[in-house]
Write a structure and sequence with these properties.
Blueprint: H1 3-22, E1 42-43, E2 50-52, E3 61-68, E4 79-86, E5 95-96, E6 105-109, H2 110-119, E7 129-138, E8 146-147, E9 151-156, E10 166-169, E11 195-202, E12 208-213, E13 216-225, E14 228-230, E15 245-252, E16 257-262, E17 273-277, E18 286-287, E19 289-290, E20 297-305, E21 309-315, E22 322-323, H3 328-332, E23 337-339, E24 346-348, E25 351-358, E26 363-368
Parallel strand pairs: 2-9
Antiparallel strand pairs: 1-3, 3-6, 4-5, 4-7, 7-8, 7-9, 10-12, 11-15, 12-13, 13-14, 15-16, 17-18, 17-21, 19-20, 20-25, 21-22, 21-24, 23-26, 25-26
Pfam families: SusE
GO molecular function: starch binding
GO cellular component, one term: outer membrane
Amino acid sequence: MNKVNILSIVFAGICAFSACTDDKDPVINDLKDSEGNNISFILNAPNNSSYTLMPENASSIIDIFTCEQPDYGFAAGVTYTVQVCEGGTEFEKFESLPTTGSGEKVLIKTFELNDAMNNLGMVNPTVAYNVDFRLKAFINDSVPELYSNTVNMAITPYSGARTQVYFVGDIFDNGWNNNDPSMRIFADDDVNNMLFTYTGFVKAGSAFKIIQTPGDWGIQWGYDSDGALSNDGGSGNIEGFTQDGYYTITLDLAGNKYSIEPYTGATTEYKQISLIGDFNDWGGDLDLQQASYDKHIWIGEKIEIPSDGGLKLRADHDWAVSFGGSNSLWNDKQGQFAKFDGGDNVKVSAGTYFIKFNDLTKHIILLAE
């Protein structure tokens, strides 16, 4: 055999080996047992057949799904994901809950299930929806995914995303302009319980109302009697600021209640509040603007966060004073309303944001625009 033929054979062998190594990992289990039957995978019946989800229990565990692990024929570390769909739709359209499980157990968090139902159009808080559940078992890309049997429950959701409301009045510099999105009111978390709060400087004799949509008086809350609100459109202005100073305004718009109390906490002033995080490699500061009506309110409009990652707020471009997350809902999913009264970095997705921060109470609003 001449040298040319020998080299050709060697080259062909190398190419064949290279082609084999470029293939994806082979499937090592086709989900059949030794008799050719599908591997069994049983999702056990839930603890209850029906639940009513409540916003005050949003971060609670509503149920724990358990199952029998499939017999893969080898020791396997399985990750289980809960999938949800409207009853009877055969998972043509479904949502996967973010919390996964192992050890044949998955926790069902109230707010995750509620979010999934809202995303699937099951949003009416007066309706008990027929909801189907199944588990997906996953090991790795070499083993096909396996799905359990379906279990069914009747689930009543609560109203989804937190309603946003706005101040209108002469307690701030915008007068009675009812079309100012920066007048959004703070809340402790994303639970849509219609509870809101604001602490800040207010001039004596000022008054306000609350509206739901900027530029529209159609839905509004105003004074009915001391401590009581009315939303019938004929309400009065809310007053109660007897002298210049710091006050805490608490609003229960579902119960039509309010309170105004003097604020007696610390009022440490900062020259600047800024964002810092993965989006700028923790190497710079993206400054917020101090509100003209209050030295402790900081606002950013159309703030660009170019990449996913963690962020914090800090004062005066220094780490001596910084603000991070401790809100459990924010840690589990990206929130919109929270208190940055902890030390953890807060995960935020890339996007354009409206940001409003109160350095007295650590309340923050961070909304994708």
